[in-house]
Each structure stands twice: as C-alpha cells, then as structure tokens.
Predict the structure of Oxysterol-binding protein.
Amino acid sequence: RFFVLNNDAGLLEYFVNEQSRHLKPRGTLQLAGAVISPSDEDSHTFTVNGASGEQYKLRATDAKERQHWVSRLQICTQHHTEAIGKNNPPLKSRSFSLASQGSANSPGVQRRPSQNAVSFFNVGHHRLPTGKRVPIMQPDHLVDVREMMSQAEGQQRDLIRSIECLPVSGHLTSLDQDLLMLKATSMATMNCLNDCFHILQLQHASQQKGSLPAGTTINWLEPKISLANHFKNGAAQNFPAEINKPASVREEQSIAEPCQLTREPEEINSDEELEDICDDKEDDLGAVEEQRSVILHLLSQLKLGMDLTRVVLPTFILEKRSLLEMYADFMSHPDLFIAITNGSTPEERMIRFVEYYLTSFHEGRKGAIAKKPYNPIIGETFHCSWRMPKSHVATDVGSNLPAHSTSEQVTLSKDPEGQKELDYYTVKFVAEQVSHHPPVSGFYAECVERKMCVNAHVWTKSKFLGMSIGVTMVGEGLLSLLEHGEEYTFSLPCAYARSILTVPWVELGGKVNINCVKTGYSASINFHTKPFYGGKLHRVTGEVKQNITNTVVCRVQGEWNSMLEFTYSNGETKYVDLTKLSVTRKRVRPLEKQGPFESRRLWQHVTESLRDGDIDKATEHKRALEERQRSEERLRAETETPWCTKYFLKEGDGWVYHKPLWKTVSAAQTQQTDTN
C-alpha cells in the first residue's frame, strides 16, 4: 500500500501503489482523536489507532523515516483534535444511578427469569446544573467537571461491584454476557471521558501560555479535591469517612510535591538496618479460585500479543512486595557473590559467577504460585544490605597466594570509626524506578571490602500469550571486579506465568550470555521452557568457554530451582542443591526510618490489606498511588518539566549508579598518588 498524509483534511489515505494515487483512495482514516505510537518491536514500526477503533500498523524503511512520519502524524492529529474541541460545544452531561439494592423489594431480588439482564439497572438521564454559560470554560469549571467525573467513576465502580457480587449460577450471574459487555463499555466510556478531559486541559494550557508570565504554575489543571474524595460515590459510601480516607492517602498527598524530584541522594547508614523478619510466602490459592470470574473478564478484553504495560491487573494476583525488592532478593546468597573475586584464575572467576547467577533466581520467587510484584512508582527506591561472616565465604583453595594482602584486608575491614576489625563483609543494595513509560528499573550492589560491584538496568515488557503471560527483561548488567580489573556483562532470561486460569506457575526461558572481554572467557546459558509433550520443568543448560581457543572449560545442567550439576574440563563434577543452600536474610531499615518513596513505606497499606485478605481496601490504596502518579505525569507533560532521578544517571541507552565503586576507588587511588 502507498500511504499519503492529507494535512488539510486530517486524513491518512492509502492507495494500491504510488501510480494510483490520482484515483479514489482504497481507504482513509480520520486522524482527529487518533493515537500515534512507535512500536516496541523494532525501530521501524509504528501504529495509528483511530478514534473509530481502526488500527493501522505501518513499517518505515528505517528509524529516521519512522520518526519523520510519527512527528508529522502527531502534529496533524493534534491540530485536528484541537479544532474539533474549539468548534463543537460540549455535550449535555449525563449521570447514571443504580437501582436501590438495599431491601428485599429491590429489582434485583424480584427479577423474573425472562427479564433482560441490562434492565436490572435503572439508567436515569438528567441535566446537571451547569451554572452561568460563558464563552470559554474557566479553570474553576474544569474543577467542577473533574468532580462530576469523580462521582461518575465512583458510580461506575459501584456498577462493577454490583455485577461481581452476583452469584456464579442461576438466572442472573456475574458472567452474563450482557453484564460483561456492560462492564467493558462502562470502563471504556470512563477512559474516553478522561482522555477528553485531558484534551480540554491541554487546550486551556496552550491558551494560557501566552498570557501568563514565565515560571507561573497552572494549579487548576489538577482537581482541587482530595484523593480520598475521588473514591466517594456521591450518593452512598462503602466505608465511614475515617476509613474511606486512610492515613496512606493523606501521606500520599503530602509527598507529591515537585520539590521531591530534586533532592540530593540520601546516604543510607547500614547500621540503622535490622535483619528482615518479613516472610510473605505466596502459597495461597484461595484468592485465585474465588476471583476466577475477574480473570475471565480480564482475559475477554485482551488480545494475543497485547502489551500489558498499561493494563491494570486485579489486586488479588499481587505479591506483597515491589518489583524493586524482588531484584534485591536475587542477592540472597551474598557468600556466592563475594566468592567470585576470590577465584585465583580468570577461568575460576567466570565459573563462580555462573554458579552465583544460576542460584539467584530460586530465592527471587516467593512460593510456587505465580504472583506479580507491585509495579514500582516512578521515583520509588529500595535499600537493603547483607552481612556475611568472612568465614562463610569460599576462599581461593587453588593458589598459595591470597587474593589480596593482609594489610589491605585489615584496612578495608575496619568499621567506619576504625576502632576494631569487623569479622563480616557488607553488601549494600539500592534500586530505583527511573522511568514509568517504558517501565525501567535501575539497581546497584557493592561490597566495598572486596572492591566489587554490580550495576544493572531492566525494562520489563509484558505480553499476553493466551493462557500465559510473557515478561521480557530488556537491559544489561555489569559486574566489576576491581581487584582484577575485570568487567562481566550479562543479560536476564524471559519469565512466563503459565496456566493463569488454574494454578499459575512461573518458568524461565531464553538464552543469556555472560562475557568478559579482558579475559576472553564467556558463558552461554539456556533456560528451557517445557515442551508441549513430555520434558522436564525449569531445565537449564550452559557452558563456559575460552573464546580464543574455543575450548569448553565447564558445562552445567539441571533445574534452576532445585539441582545443578557442574562438570569441569578435568573430569570433576560438582552438585549444587538449591533447596539446601542457606539464605542470608537482608537487612532493612524500620518503616519509621524509611523515606516516603521507599518501597515498603510507599506500599505498606496495600501490603497490610493483602495480609488481612481485604482485597477491596488494597485496591483502593493501590489506585490512590497510581492516580497520583498519573496526575504528576500529566502535570509534568503540560508544564514541560523533565523527571529528575535520584540515584541513577542516564548514560547512552542505560542507567548507571551516580557513585559507583569503580569511580570512588579510582578517585581514592588518584588522591593517594597525589599525596605520595
């Protein structure tokens, strides 16, 4: 097809080929209200989603041409969308109210079998008081509209709750096709209204930009009502006022100030951290069984290959921890991590890194059932540390020389006040959500005594695959062994949540590579997904090679969550039983000492509600956090304010910790040289 952008008419037209463009177009797409999106698949593809529901998926010849087309289409779309907003008066407002369900005489109880499902609800239409008509809607009127929409959102949630509270069998069930359609269309209507309201905000922002002095904050762009009121239904409330306005919501309002974005990185004192006593194993299946209808409804709205990044998943499938904390749990064997640098040869260090890498995934999963960690809020951070007795770390048994001199060990192992030598190593960890769209997390861990650190950034891309969900971990990690001047690059496997309608479980899949340029050693690891017929679960195979000679020095096979077998080039074999490996508990500061954006304090009310089994309350707290994030994101977009990260800096395509060990050690060595 040959596509032509008709700027004047606001149309995207296509023809059979370039020679036939003088004929009538084979098809046209109205760009007013359309959404133009570059695809995540590659650097050439983009999609045009029309307001009518039509979608065109197009592919440019290269990234430069794609950017040109996307930019021109977005400009044309914005122009014609704004023109519609200016030339058409707003539609008459409507409100919807449910029939009374409080008594035995309600229509729900008296409903006859022949009654249509949709007639279960009374839909009343009436004009809302609009006040004095003015040529241009003023800021205060936008606040009124926002309040009306908040009431409508509350009533829409009541509607969904009413449907979901229906029995699963009988004349009228929660899985009735008409009711499922009503749920989907009501949700789509509210999403559409929110998009229209956002267009109004942008329109007024552009009108006000020319008349306001530079630096003025347009406060009226966001609703002046509290987040707690946002969940009120206008007519009836499910909780008393104090319950409906939890402390977390008040706290979330107080920490949403823009000044938080420019704070200096906080130095965490590991002495304030205490051994973690939290042990939330995700082994309960009850919630999944009870919420089967919700999963069915969610699946009915998804399409194969759909990106789930922006899909709000039901609260009951959540783990009781943030994704940032899950990354920290990959460090639950700090003895194996520290032992990497103790290897006497490059070959031994690479093999030790592979051993640590393969043992890190088992503890990252909390129980057998597949649940999803909280999506981190942009700016969210997580801090922790581990203390590992020196006697528990494997030393170099293959060499007569220690990995570092005694004097060096004494100097590096003293406490901060230099009073006594410590008998343990400390591994510190920090993670931060550096981007929301796309969702990118950065994390960093270091052991100063052993001069080793790891820096990584991960972009999680989720896709719906039918009866499973696939998560691609896009990004790269870098392990630095400063004592040896070696750097190891590595990637992460894909994760899959299988059997999401029965008992969901997790498996890993894909090929990952570990490489050290300096030594010429590399490792290739394959995580095998279970074949349709036969085969083992969680199987992994791999090999370590010397690239120059193309010699395999070690092979590994087994299951990443149970038993691993390492076979070395000299014929020796080593078995690692992951179920018997000791797990070192991380150390975390108490909640009262954590900052407002630290994971456990940020999500504490969601976690407490999940522990209590109160899914509705957990959903309310979760929605408050997500709504605050969306509001702040809209405000930044409208005021063209860039997001400022706290601990990680953008370098090329990746994110690097602001004060990595390789910089501080290098600076210390330079200072020592200057002093000498």
In short: The two ends are 72 Å apart (CA to CA). The chain has 17 helices and 25 strands.
